[in-house]
Amino acid sequence: KKIKLDKESFTIGAVYYSDHLVTIARLTLNKDNQVIVEGVIELPVQGDVIGDRVIEQKNEFSNILLDSFDLLKIEGSPLLVILSSSFFNVHTFYSSELKQISNTDNTVQSKSPYLPNETFIEFLNLSKKSEEDKLIRTVYTNRKLIESWTDTLEILNMPTIGIVPSGPNIFDILKTKVL
User: Fold this and answer.
1) What is the pLDDT of residues 32-84, one digit of tens each?
2) Does the predicted TM-score (pTM) go above 0.90?
3) For helices 58-72 and 143-156, angle between their N-to-C axes, nearest 10 degrees
4) HSE-up of 126 (CA within 13 Å, CB side)?
5) Are 78 and 68 in contact (CB under 8 A)?
6) Residue 56's CB: how many other CB atoms inside 10 A?
7) Do residues 156 and 62 make contact, with C-beta atoms less than 8 angstroms apart?
8) pLDDT tens digits, 76-92
């Protein structure tokens, strides 16, 4: 089935980073949330630009991204950053296990692989409103990792959709669907 584009269709840029490899895609979405992958660039990133986890040379990496955005014609488009799932740890709690749904809760902190002041925590309610003992998904990542990406996004000065962990093999699938 052919995907139709119309006046309501819009383009975003997607950046996926894992294991010193950055994949950048131009994606167009139509009003039915169908996605067309219009171009993909895959580039190796040197270890001095991005270390094991953190962007060490933000200006250099920003220039790499900006050059790629220019090639894909996505400069100024909203940007979604997808980071390797290896940068995130996930734990699910029942709400009854927590005194409060907060990054200061001792039970929440005890599951983090990082020290409290080095941890960025995001919560997601997985249960329906009517359930009494709700499931709460907690995602942990290193604060310096996220800050290095947000600092880089500030340099890019582009609208940002967000920074999210990847789904398994999402960009392998996207690369096979390029027009």
Assistant:
1) 888 889 999 999 999 999 999 899 999 999 999 999 999 999 998 999 999 99
2) no
3) 50
4) 14
5) no
6) 15
7) yes
8) 899 999 999 899 998 98
